[in-house]
Amino acid sequence: MNPIRSLFVSGLVSGLFVAGMTGVAFADDNADTAKMLIEKAQTSSLAWDLVESLTTEIGPRLGGSAAEARARDWAVRKLEGLGFANVHVEDFEMDGWRRGDIALHVGDPYPQRLIATALGGSVGTPVGGITASVVRFESIQDLREAPLGSLKGKIAYVADKMTRSQRGSGYGVAVQKRGGGASVASERGALAIVIRSAGTDYERQPHTGGVRYNGEFAAIPAAALSNNDADQLDRLLALNGDIELTLSMSAKRLGKVKSGNVIGDIIGSEYPDEIVLLGAHLDSWDEGTGAIDDGTGVAIVTAAAALVAQHATPKRTIRVVLFGAEEQGLIGARAYVKANAEEMEKIIMVSESDFGSGRIWRMDTGIAKADVPKADAILRVLRPLGVLPGDRTASGGSDVSALSAAGAPAISMGQNGWDYFDLHHTPNDTLDKIDPDDLAQNVAVYAAFALMVANTDGGFHAPEKETEDGN
Amino acid sequence: MNPIRSLFVSGLVSGLFVAGMTGVAFADDNADTAKMLIEKAQTSSLAWDLVESLTTEIGPRLGGSAAEARARDWAVRKLEGLGFANVHVEDFEMDGWRRGDIALHVGDPYPQRLIATALGGSVGTPVGGITASVVRFESIQDLREAPLGSLKGKIAYVADKMTRSQRGSGYGVAVQKRGGGASVASERGALAIVIRSAGTDYERQPHTGGVRYNGEFAAIPAAALSNNDADQLDRLLALNGDIELTLSMSAKRLGKVKSGNVIGDIIGSEYPDEIVLLGAHLDSWDEGTGAIDDGTGVAIVTAAAALVAQHATPKRTIRVVLFGAEEQGLIGARAYVKANAEEMEKIIMVSESDFGSGRIWRMDTGIAKADVPKADAILRVLRPLGVLPGDRTASGGSDVSALSAAGAPAISMGQNGWDYFDLHHTPNDTLDKIDPDDLAQNVAVYAAFALMVANTDGGFHAPEKETEDGN
Predict the structure, then answer these.
(1) Buried-exposed string A386-424: b where 16+ CB fall within 10 A, e elsewhere
(2) Mean pLDDT calculated for residue range B88-111
(3) Hey, is the C-beta of A113 within 8 angstroms of any chain B C-beta?
(4) CA of A78 to nearest chain B CA: how many angstroms apart?
């Protein structure tokens, strides 16, 4: 530690927290090392270099595609180059899908093209498309209330706008519409469904994302309009209740294809069998280059673990898992849990970065009550980076929620997602959207967090099961 | 005039300008009437209603297309409904064009799709596309300096970024690249040309716009990359100088097709044969709905003239000309000048609105020196709207520059164009981009301007011809 840094971390900054540091389970040198890592991370370009390389050399990387396979090769090279141990790919099978082309046209008296995109996993239309009248619903709830058979020969349209928020809380209801709307519409007789995108921008970018057929009703074509085009359709329907659309999609579900998770370890010096698992997903949807979803996550957790290895000695193993096929439904995460069932109890912490590149502003926990003081000690180190205490309901994030559901302790680093759903799942998810300083803040948080968890006395434990009366 | 308005225009507002109003050629009641029109315009929704109707009911309206013909029918209905006289269409012929589809792919080792659009009027590629190595040029000037034959079998790529400015001053050099680059590249042997869009956004929207083959060299396919994709190609070329692209375009030049200008008059009460001509263009490129280019212009000049007719008595005729096929090279404007050659001397003023919906902040003149005090009087009325004095080189704007070149006096109302080239010629040129308050400010300026010009004593005259030594 150089003298200037020593002065900084021991004096000015840590002094702010001395009053609250009684009863903490860390040796001071863990906090000091974490603070040193924060400094290192904030001046490192490693994460930027990784996300630039991934989004440029590979670009879009749909789960199960040849591009995703190239991304796995890329990840293996990068992890090995950065000194990770046990670098390997765990393959799994999944249902393949190809987007194909789409055209959506309004019929007379307002003939014009609307901009839409196929939802991921959607079936296509017959050649020549489906031409039918539109029935508009304000929400998925209204669609559910439509009588069975009432949409026979029609195209259902669900029009509600997603709400913008810092935590992305509007996404839950939007996902119900996107994922489940097709089967609800099909049950009522619809030939196809068109939704307003689950997205908050007005840049004429339709947002893709997975549709989930429930298997009970016919799989019907499903597409999303940009917000601009949904407004246009709303205006046309206000002029004339009987609007006909022609939807042509050559989307196709393929047979079984291969995907995989890429795994690499920074081996712990004292407890190599105990694992701090940092996740991100390597796949992306196929229209953008997957910069903020989830190239940044890949870069953040990889760079954080590499910086820990370069500048410190973690006592436990820090494992980076770059999941495949997250977008099609956490397929890689489920495969990981299945393939590594015997290791689940060795995982003392999971956390995933998968919410773009906005600054981390809160830390949520999903840990045993007895471990809360250890989390508080981490938080004190992260406070100068702007990280505030969150709640105790953390699952750790998208893929790793499969691990926390299987019993792993979890901490979620909450990012500012105010703009995230402007870009999420659109062609516009590109490198230029990433702020390098915000990216570095994320790396700093994850590096400090990973080191402190790896070195904490006694580790972390899963939260107590809630009793049936909710306590 | 109601008492409250009378107090406002005679007292509070006009009082600010009394000191400067000596020697003005207007009767005070012209200025007062103009100020009343400003009030009316600022609370009128007419322009918004017009642009909403045009962009919704017609949508994109490429010059020479069936959609542009529907837009002419729409314009005739609207002008007649608003009480314009002599509403009619002047047809003309032009070369038709159809965009078709485009696909642009990078070859190994970085296979991925880039987002591009065909330039307007471009020829297509053979079926299966053109696959060739890329040769990058920093600018159109660098491309011009490439030796003849040096691009044989290659795809030329011109990479320079357009500069953002309030007046759109970066567009001139960008248009040289977009319009002229294909013939320069073809002369040097290139099979196709790809340019970075003439646009300032990073929303992954390629900007179309006309390519102009000079007729001397083979017409080669020409396409524009979004700024994001141009950055991507730049990064790939930095990694590996030998990048191959495959460009497939089904764009097609059609035979002769029909377009037309739509014309309507507010007849002057004293000098009906003297014309104040307000222009805008009815056509748009085919990917957006032509909201800011030039639905707003159509709405602004139509609403301004209609408000004058509703609330005042112009002494001269105010003519609205909604030109066809502006985007393909002022084709409608040239047809208008040709068809109305005998009327040119009756035009005492031309002005066009064709720079989006940003607020007007300056007024430039192209008039005789003797008429400058009359323009100053107009400016004094417009000053409370934020309009500042400009220069004396005005052409009146895009189409009507054909009229000022033919000898008509001109005034240009300069809008804030800071964001204009984010949207210009992209799919993202949609209604939601228009600020209703800014739109109303434009209508207020044009209404006051049109009334004052129509009623000025002695009219306006063309600027004196410059002598050969520049004086």
Answers:
(1) ebeebeeebbbbbbbbbbbebebbbbbbbbbbebbbbbb
(2) 98
(3) yes
(4) 16
List CB contacts (< 8 A) between A231 and chain B: 430-432
Of A110, A235, A427, the CB nearest to B115: A427
Q: Is B112 on the interface with A (CB under 8 A)?
A: yes
A214 inside domain = yes
Say if B152 is an interface residue toward chain A (CB within 8 Å): no
Question: pLDDT digit string (tens) for B148-190?
Answer: 999 999 999 999 999 999 998 889 889 999 999 999 999 999 9
In a domain, B468, yes or no: no
Residues of B in contact with A109 (CB under 8 A): 57
CATH of the domain at A68: 3.40.630.10
**Does the beta carbon of B239 lie under 8 angstroms from any beta carbon of chain A?**
yes
Give the range of the structural domain holding residue A165, as residue numbers without chain letter: 100-250
For the ranges A15-29, A166-180, A409-423, B208-222, which has the lowest average pLDDT? A15-29
From the list A67, A227, A428, which residue is nearest B203 (CB)? Answer: A428
Residue of A nearest to B111 (CA): A58
How many angstroms separate the CA atoms of A120 and A253, rounded? 10
Whether the predicted pLDDT of B371 surpasses 90: yes
**How do residues B131-145 score in pLDDT, each as one tens digit?**
999 999 999 999 999
Q: Is the confidence at residue A396, as pLDDT, over 60?
A: yes
pLDDT at res. B13:
35
Q: Which of B250, B285, B304 is the last residue of a domain?
A: B250
Rg (CA), chain B: 24
DSSP B296-360: HHHHHHHHHHHHHHHH---SEEEEEEEES--TTTSHHHHHHHHHTGGGGGGEEEEEE--BTBPPE
Provide the pLDDT for residue B20.
40
Residue where a domain terminates, one of B250, B275, B295: B250
- Asked which of A204-218, A254-268, A378-392, B18-32 is least confident by mean pLDDT, the reply is B18-32
The B residues from 55 to 74 touching A (CB cutoff 8 Å) are 56-60, 66-67
Q: Are B333 and B403 in contact (CB under 8 A)?
A: yes
Task: Indicate whether B178 and B224 sit together in one domain.
Answer: yes
Nearest CA in chain A to B66: A111
A-B contacts at Cβ under 8 angstroms: 93
B157 and B12, same structural domain?
no
A463: in domain: no
Q: Which tokens sit at B160?
A: 């320079």
Q: Write down the residue that tokens 């005034």 correspond to.
A: B411
Cβ–Cβ contact A53 with B under 8 A = no
Is the pLDDT reported for residue A20 higher than 80?
A: no
The answer to whether the Cβ–Cβ distance between B56 and A428 falls below 8 Å is: no
Nearest to A40 by CA among A277, A309, A374: A309
Residue B432 has its nearest CB partner, among A109, A111, A231, at A231
| B438's tokens | 């800014």
Same domain for A363 and A306: yes
Q: Is pLDDT above 60 for B39?
A: yes
Structure confidence at residue A466 (pLDDT) = 66
B133 shares a domain with B62: no
CB nearest B56 (choices: A59, A205, A236): A236
Decide if B295 touches A, using CB distance below 8 A: no
Over the stretch A41-70, which tens digit does the pLDDT of each residue have? Answer: 999 999 999 999 999 999 999 999 999 999
Tens digits of residue pLDDT in B256-315 = 999 999 999 999 999 999 999 999 999 999 999 999 999 999 999 999 999 999 999 999
pLDDT of residue B465: 78
B232·A56 Cβ contact <8 A: yes
Kindly state whether residue B462 falls inside one of the protein's structural domains: no
- The CATH number of the domain holding residue A172 is 3.50.30.30
**Residue B101: how many other CB atoms lie within 10 Å:** 12
Closest-approach residue (CA) in chain A for B56: A232
Q: How far is CA B254 from the centre of its chain?
A: 24
- Contact, A150 vs A186, CB < 8 A? no
- Please indicate, yes or no, whether residues B268 and B405 belong to a single structural domain of this protein: yes
From CA A320, how far away is CA A341, in angstroms rounded? 17
User: Is some CB atom of chain B closer than 8 A to the CB atom of A202?
Assistant: yes
Residues A352, A337 within the same domain = yes
B302 and B275 in one domain? Answer: yes
- Looking at the structure of chain B, the number of domains it has is 2
Based on the fold, state whether residues B270 and B400 are members of the same structural domain. Answer: yes
